[in-house]
């Protein structure tokens, strides 16, 4: 589990709604983010 | 969490959802539930692994999730067809602009999540403080 101070999430890559890869660093670069990982979409 | 989007933005942050199904599921989720929020998807679940989320049949089908199920039903929530990994749990993290986690929460079982008000209060507390960086 990530704890405060950990920077490994910056290695993550996700997809936008068009299927393009988005490094999480791009998500973070505009300022603080509250990220919510969903169980599933249903 | 969408209900506190304005409070999150007032605190200087953005609210972003990451799911684990395909992009069609993600688009449907955004259009149906969070049209004004950013939604991304991670079919590989690699970021779930980075966060340390739990997975497995017994993290979903456990008596511990029963109170949350009843609470959700009372508030009118009904689960539709599962779109994504059925036995993968979620989590929440507050991450700063350089990618350092300032706070995180990993769901132990289905329905285990922090209240939105607690997340906002934590956001206000941790943002603005210098991070103790661990790599």
Secondary structure layout plus pairing:
The complex is a heterodimer of chains A (42) and B (135).
Chain A: E1 13-15, E2 21-23, H1 24-28, E3 33-37
Antiparallel strand pairs in A: 1-2
Chain B: H1 5-10, E1 14-19, H2 23-33, E2 38-41, H3 46-51, H4 57-60, H5 66-74, E3 91-95, E4 101-106, H6 116-126
Parallel strand pairs in B: 1-2
Antiparallel strand pairs in B: 3-4
Summarize the structure.
Helix content of chain A is 12%, strand content 26%. Chain A has 42 residues and is an alpha+beta fold.
Number of continuous helical runs of chain A: 1
Could you name the CATH topology of chain B?
A: Glutaredoxin
The N- to C-terminal Cα distance of chain B equals: 29 Å
Count of DSSP H/I helices of chain B: 6
The H-and-E topology of chain B, N to C, reads as: HEHEHHHEEH
Unreliable stretches of chain B, pLDDT < 50, 5 or more residues?
A: none
The residue-averaged pLDDT of chain B reads 85
Globally, the shape of chain A reads: globular
The overall number of domains of chain A is: 1
Mean pLDDT of chain A: 90
The neighbouring-strand order within the major sheet of chain A is 1-2
Detailed description of the structure:
The complex is a heterodimer of chains A (42) and B (135). Chain A has 42 residues and is α+β, with helices and mostly antiparallel strands. Chain A has one domain. Chain A contains one helix and three strands; from the N terminus they run ββαβ. In chain A, a hairpin with a 5-residue loop joins strand 1 and strand 2. The radius of gyration of chain A is 12 Å and the shape is globular. The mean pLDDT of chain A is 90. Chain B has 135 residues and is of the alpha+beta class. Chain B has a single domain, classed as Glutaredoxin, CATH 3.40.30. Chain B has six helices and four strands; from the N terminus they run αβαβαααββα. Chain B has a two-stranded parallel sheet. In chain B, strand 1, helix 2 and strand 2 form a beta-alpha-beta unit. The longest helix of chain B is centred in the first third of the chain and has 11 residues. The radius of gyration of chain B is 15 Å and the shape is globular. The mean pLDDT of chain B is 85.
């Amino acid at each position: 589990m990530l704890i405060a101070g950990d920077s490994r999430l910056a290695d993550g890559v996700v997809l936008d709604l068009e299927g393009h890869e988005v490094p999480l660093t791009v998500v973070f670069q505009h300022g603080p983010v509250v990220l919510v990982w969903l169980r599933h979409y249903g | 969490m969408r209900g506190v989007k304005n409070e999150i933005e007032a605190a200087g942050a953005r609210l972003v959802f990451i799911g684990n199904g395909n992009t069609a599921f993600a688009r449907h989720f955004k259009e149906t539930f969070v049209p004004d929020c950013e939604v991304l998807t991670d079919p590989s679940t690699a970021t779930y692994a980075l966060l340390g989320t739990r997975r497995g049949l017994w993290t979903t089908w456990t008596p511990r999730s029963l109170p949350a199920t009843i609470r959700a039903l009372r508030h009118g929530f009904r689960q539709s067809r599962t779109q994504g990994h059925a036995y993968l749990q979620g989590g929440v993290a507050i991450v700063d602009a350089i990618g350092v986690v300032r706070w995180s929460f990993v769901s132990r079982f289905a329905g285990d999540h922090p209240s939105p008000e607690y997340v906002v209060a934590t956001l206000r507390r941790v943002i603005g403080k210098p991070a103790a960086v661990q790599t």
